[in-house]
Amino acid sequence: MHYIKALILSLIFTFQWSQSPAQEASIQWISFEQLEDTLEVKPKKVFIDFYTDWCSYCKKMDRKVFTKTEVIKRINKEYYAVRMDAESQDSIRFDGQVFINRQSSKRKAGIHDLALLLGSRKGQFAPPTMLILNPEFELLDRRFEYLYSEQLLDWLNRF
Predict the structure, then answer these.
(1) pTM for this structure?
(2) What CATH fold (topology level) applies to the domain 28-157?
(3) What is the pLDDT along the chain (159 residues), one digit of tens a residue?
């Protein structure tokens, strides 16, 4: 019996130890649907990244910024991170509403209503667009540009 308990404890410890480095290997991105549920259970600041597949600066941030250990640790520790393709065709249920991409047509992808609502500047959307919100989902700040990892960390430090 003691052998079985020791084996179980050993497996649990090994599993937890092996999971910890992997959890810090990347930002733990969640969806808007997951965010709503999570904010109700445990309030925390929110970091949102809107991107598009054609945005070269978005791809560069994926490769050069969102892979930096310091950035990953800061975002995972202090924020719920939401990442969304601004041209998504998916319907998204958030805050009791359903958001769709009304600009989409056969000839162009269009910008999703949720991206337009949260990430527009002077009625226009241009990626990369990042937002920081407080736990009550109130906007604290937005950025509409490529940020080097140091710039992103400085920005995150302000909140």
Answers:
(1) 0.82
(2) Glutaredoxin (3.40.30)
(3) 544 443 343 434 444 444 445 456 899 999 999 998 899 899 999 999 999 999 999 999 999 999 999 999 999 999 999 999 999 999 999 989 999 999 988 888 999 999 999 999 988 999 999 999 999 999 999 999 999 999 999 999 999
Amino acid identity of 68?
K
Q: Which residues sit opposite 141 in a β-bridge?
A: 132
73-106 as b/e: b if 16+ CB within 10 A:
ebbbeebbbbbbbbbbeeebebeeeebebeeeee
Residues in a beta bridge with 80: 46
User: Nearest Cα to 94, choosing from 134, 156, 40, 44?
Assistant: 40
DSSP H helical ranges for 24-148: 32-41, 56-64, 69-78, 113-119
* Residue 50 near residue 118, CB atoms below 8 Å: yes
C-alpha span between 29 and 48 (Å, rounded): 9
List the chain domain ranges.
28-157
Q: Identify whether the C-beta of residue 153 lies closer than 8 Å to the C-beta of residue 67.
A: no
